[in-house]
Amino acid sequence: MPQVSALPRDARGQLIRDGRDLMLATYALIGPNVADAGKRFAGNNLACTNCHLDGGTTKFGLPLFGIYNDFPAYSARTGAPISIEDRINSCMTRSMNGRALPNDAPEMRAMVAYVEFLSTGVPAGQQVPGLGAGKMKELKRAADPQRGSAVYARSCAACHKPDGAGVLRDRGAPELGYMLPPVWGPDSYNDGAGMARLINFANFVHFNMPHGADYLNPQLTPEQAWDVAAYVLSQPRPHRAGLDKDFPDLLDKPVDAPYGPYADGFGEKQHKYGPFGPIRDAIKKLKSAASRKP
Question: Which residues are paired to 178 by β-bridges?
Fold first, then answer.
């Protein structure tokens, strides 16, 4: 992993350092309580590193290394190619429940520079191991929020608290961010975020949680991870308007997108909790039928 601390003290080095700082302390620099109202881009007091662990450098912790040259890339969510700036703003408006950064904003330039730096030495088109949140075996049944509540109480509540609200560094100063982030409630990610989809969240939990777990040493079984993820995602969180406009080609919509409309005949509950095999089979048939049409 390239080391930010080894960079020269020039303009480029400082820009990359600024990008790392934005990843680690988003709340303090562009959060909803910063002094300059024009800099309040994030709508909650999370940090990017709450999802992109260790500043985006942890395998299967939604890392950012090696992805810079993947952009522009086609996005099924928009039905069109997106830039690296578009991808960052998807996080800003969904995971951070805020508003988009202008492409020429210093904060955007810094974040892009940091992501580019983490791809140092990775040729375009090369797939780096450890990307995403990992992939464990899916359940043949629906994930069960009720079973998950017991897993949460036993393995998660000590850190994220029984009400899912996390632990602020200073209860009187939310602008100082969280020691342990909320996983639901008004200061969490909204229902359009990638973490609001069960497959993403359950794999992230399995390979990274609770504290001390990693992809080599998971502490929850796959079944426990699916169920506790279902429990967390059954709880209230901010709503993002316009989700019905996501995925203009409904046959490209992820099977775990927890909001309609859908083209496959399955309802929102099964899309939210699974099982996903029957949905995939239905989509495959629909795509096959569409390909045969003149």
Answer: 168
